[in-house]
Amino acid sequence: MFSEAPVRDEVIEELAGLLQNSENIVVLTGAGMSTESGIPDFRSDSGLWQDDELMQAMSLNYLRYFPERFWPKFKHVFLRPEYLQAQPNSGHLALAKLEGMGKRIQVFTQNVDGLHGVAGNTQVFELHGNLGKAKCPVCHTPYVLDHILATDVPRCTWENQKGALCGHVLDPDTVLFGQDVRHYGRAQLAIAKADLMLVLGTSLTVDPVAELPHFAIEQTRVQLVIVNLEPTYCDKWARLVIRGKVAEVVSQAVTHIVRVRKGVWSDPSSARRPAQNAQ
């Protein structure tokens, strides 16, 4: 087990330096990105995926065979108060601030909470979909969260020109077991062209997303940084590995960049050093 300890200032400064010197940054985020927004990690020892029956119900087959049973279970998993009330944390906001500094930030997230977009990042690719969206499997009419929450089992309300109601039970936008992840090829291409890849809050144990860092490892020009509380199989290839909470680490690093740009040092003992030596 990992015993949490504060991340040293020099480690934060090293991460800040890598971010500052990179223009094209690809970010892969997992559950650890959102736990600091109060959203639970389903794969933790006490997570919902410890319930095998519930996990099996979150599958495409279950939805097709038992659509009316599926939705109450789906809402129990993904539309809990923790999700509905969650707001971007300091890590989400720091990634958006990096983009605001002129960096090209492409976020590929395994999370379905939509918080990267709420925080302000404009290039967000949701590998596992978004819990706030749904569509009709027949006429493909899209729906948003308010419609999903309005009834226990959301149905399509589209009517044709004759006034006939479609009425089919909706499919969630969230990727279910038995479905392919999205944007995988785009992620491969983005990583191959990046200066830096950040892996944030994922232990890289679930394929195929777990394989994405290999595309950085194979490109000698792409530096790999991993921030996670637990070890990952890619740690040995990473330029920098940080054992810490994602929101704290990333926000501190971006704050350091801002201070350096303003000529203000994060270390009070070094405040007398001239600004041109800050980097």
Structure description:
It is a single chain. This protein is an alpha/beta fold. It has helices at residues 9-20, 31-34, 52-57, 60-65, 67-78, 81-84, 90-100, 115-119, 145-150, 184-192, 213-217, 246-262; strands at 24-29, 104-109, 124-126, 133-135, 142-144, 171-172, 196-200, 223-227, 240-242. A six-stranded parallel β-sheet has the order 3-2-1-7-8-9, with helices on both faces. A hairpin with a 6-residue loop joins strand 4 (133-135) and strand 5 (142-144). The longest helix has 17 residues, at 246-262. The protein is elongated, with a radius of gyration of 21 Å.
Kindly list the characteristics that best describe this protein.
Rossmann fold, 13% strand, 12 helices, SIR2/SIRT2 'Small Domain', 9 strands, alpha/beta, disordered C terminus, three-stranded antiparallel β-sheet, elongated, 279 residues, 35% helix
